Amino acid sequence: MHAPGRWGEVATLALLPVQARRPAGKHASPPLDPAPPFLSQIGTLGPALCLWHLSSGAGAQQRQLFRAITALTAMMGSLGCCAGGFAAQHTDIATQYAGVLFGLTNAASSLAGSVAVYTTGVVLERTGGWVLVFQAVAAINLFSAAMHLMFSSSEPQFE
Question: Domains of the chain: which residue ranges?
Answer without folding.
Answer: 2-17+33-151
